Amino acid sequence: MGIIAEINKEEKVAFPEGKIILLDGRVLDCYPVAKEEETEVVDDSMKLDTTGEYLSVKKKPIGCDLSKSKQVQLQNEDIQKDLFIRNAFYLLAHKERILSDSRMFLCPVAIHNGLAYTGTSGFHKPTLGIYIEWWVNCVGAMQTDKNGRRSLVYHLAGSPLSGANHCGTVYENGEKEFVVLSSFKNYWPLFMDINTRYTEAKYKYQAYSLDQVLAILGVEDCGVTDYAQTIEIEFMKQEIVSLNKQVECLSKERDNWHEKYFETLMKYNEEKVCELYAECVDLETKVNAEIVCLREQKRLLKVDLKCGRIDNIAYQRQLKPIKESIRDLEFRLANFKSSRVKEVFPHESINFTMIENYMKQHPMK
To answer: Which residue in 39, 80, 238, 302 could disulfide with 110, CB within 3.0 to 4.6 Å?
Structure first.
């Protein structure tokens, strides 16, 4: 229940009437379906399955007692599913075109994703645009194996609790393979978020069929059939995102270890640090008191100037030594702090500000 609550707490995006807003911010005009074709919007929030059908991640057996119409429906879905899988890379190569037309974006995809315990809730009626957005935004949805073979994840099935999963990928040559994705939690929540973002739009607006999308793209291709470079660029973009995430994780780990090292260093040199800190605070108090007096002299000098008791030449002549005294005091304080820190930590990249912040957070006796 904790996972379901976490997913469903996300606020749904409200789109302007007749439009959808994509993840990258672009706004697409939509075309309402005819009145006679309107259907009621079905809630697609994540919920526990009560049928007991989704208690495992194994492939579900197809029943033999299905009605004739249901069998025909499943056969048609299989045809559309295979059509999508075979053309997955081709469709990715036409990402910009698909993300510029709401009818292409909302084109239904006959893939049934799901989770153990919650079934297909949150995954209903995925569309072509949803898959495109998920592929380019989910690190790992585009994969390259050790032999350089590229693949796209097209099917998600697994447990949100244990992370056990049995997912589908397709290679550039159309070959399919079932795989176990590491860190399954990095895949399904984003797909669900993107999918439920457009739930209402799927029911309200017109969408091309996959056959229509492929036909339109085929005409617009003007005979071009090689999209290897486009695909390579898309995979390189995600590789950059993946590397940046790795750098971010490593930076956080580095900062964490640096913090632990710094705290250990402070505790090991507690007596010296306390002495250093006390000396610097004492000098700072004295220096600040002198600076306050000098600034008061500046203020009085300016009063004399405004009242006409002295002219500007006399004002500038008397102001100069005051300003120099203030700078000298500030330099003396900064130099003392730096020198004392270097005496205690000659081989460390530590400054007085770091020690001061530490002392405020960890008062020593």
So the answer is: 80
